[in-house]
């Protein structure tokens, strides 16, 4: 299966002014049925095929490479969204084991470095750096390529050293020039610490992960599974809940349960997952977060970590809900195979940003039983 065509991708890049991609074509084709088994086939094989088809459609629309076929990028996106879409390539390799996705990861990483360099300290957003730190740590676990590990270790230390202080009882600052402390940095940092402990076996990573996690639990978690967005320097808490903050808290909780064996962490993961499924979305389709530059891809982060809770943590009670969302995204794809972030609505043949179309890809890989 192809990943991209350099010549076609170069033409798309030239046409990507204002970071908007035109989805052309009006010819409708019959939509495949999500999860339908072929004769002699297995459900898992069909899930993989669907996820790969969706990934290829996404790459065909949005992925470009340089003239040497060496570095690639998702056009029109920026630091943290590119980091998260790099993670989708990691998801693809993790779930399929196919070398083309390993190569895609490396190509996307080189494109990322071309844009942002190997030292990301000039980015004031601590969460931006931590997203790519997670991606690199996961990429190292799968490939053994030491440059991923080096980047993950370096940037975890960079962020922790500059972002942790004792104000508000601890926690990591969201941004270097601000005093608020947000779930969007503390949840991912706890995950990154767990990953680096798993990679290196160095206790300081696990201790930092537990330290960050405990602060978030004590400060931003509401006791019913809801994860508040942030706390300001005056102690005022913004109780808004989002899919990506729920997702990273679930992921950090599961990791700490796996690494320590302490039931309390699994209990917190289940509480947060229950709140997300029952209270935020009433066991229905996630048909929100379509506005702005950041929101449209949030739910892909929930998909990744909730999927791991199901597939690796054995919490099968969420599988039906995850498959409901994957099925709705899949059946609502447009003629080009793209799935916009409003999974309960038909994706139109119009203009879409890559980030908002990426969440469904993460969801499709997340439901694969592996």
From TrEMBL:
It comes from Fusicatenibacter faecihominis. The keyword Signal applies. Pfam families: Glyco_hydro_76. Residues 1-29 form the signal peptide. Keywords: Hydrolase, Signal. This is Glycoside hydrolase family 76 protein. GO terms for biological process: carbohydrate metabolic process. One of its GO terms (molecular function) is hydrolase activity. It comes from the Bacteria.
């Amino acid at each position: 299966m192809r990943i991209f065509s350099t010549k076609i991708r170069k033409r798309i890049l030239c046409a990507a002014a204002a970071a908007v991609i035109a989805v052309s074509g009006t010819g409708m084709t019959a939509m495949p049925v999500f999860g339908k088994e072929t004769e002699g086939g297995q459900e898992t094989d069909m899930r993989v095929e669907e996820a790969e088809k969706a990934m290829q459609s996404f790459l065909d629309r949005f992925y470009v490479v340089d003239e040497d076929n060496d570095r690639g990028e998702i056009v029109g996106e920026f630091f943290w969204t590119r980091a998260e879409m790099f993670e989708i390539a990691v998801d693809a390799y993790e779930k399929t084991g196919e070398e083309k996705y390993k190569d895609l990861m490396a190509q996307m990483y080189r494109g990322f470095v071309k844009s942002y360099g190997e030292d990301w300290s000039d980015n004031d957003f601590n969460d931006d750096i931590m997203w790519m730190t997670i991606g690199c740590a996961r990429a190292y676990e799968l490939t053994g390529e030491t440059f991923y590990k080096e980047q993950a270790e370096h940037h975890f230390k960079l962020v922790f050293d500059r972002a942790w202080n004792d104000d508000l009882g601890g926690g990591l600052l969201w941004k270097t020039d601000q005093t608020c402390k947000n779930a969007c940095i503390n949840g991912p940092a706890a995950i990154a610490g767990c990953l680096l402990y798993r990679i290196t076996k160095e206790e300081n990573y696990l201790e930092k992960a537990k330290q960050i996690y405990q602060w978030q639990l004590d400060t931003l978690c509401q006791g019913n599974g809801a994860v508040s967005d942030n706390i300001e320097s005056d102690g005022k808490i913004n109780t808004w809940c989002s899919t990506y903050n729920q997702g990273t808290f679930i992921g950090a909780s599961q990791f700490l349960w796996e690494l320590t064996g302490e039931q309390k962490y699994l209990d917190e993961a289940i509480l947060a997952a229950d709140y997300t499924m029952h209270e935020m979305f009433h066991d229905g389709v996630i048909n929100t977060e379509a506005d702005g530059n950041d929101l449209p891809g949030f739910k892909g982060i929930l998909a990744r970590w909730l999927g791991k809770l199901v597939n690796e943590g054995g919490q099968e009670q969420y599988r039906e809900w995850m498959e409901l969302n994957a099925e709705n995204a899949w059946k609502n794809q447009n003629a080009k195979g793209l799935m916009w972030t409003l999974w309960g609505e038909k994706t139109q043949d119009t203009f879409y940003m890559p980030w908002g179309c990426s969440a469904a890809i993460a969801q499709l890989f997340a439901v694969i039983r592996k």
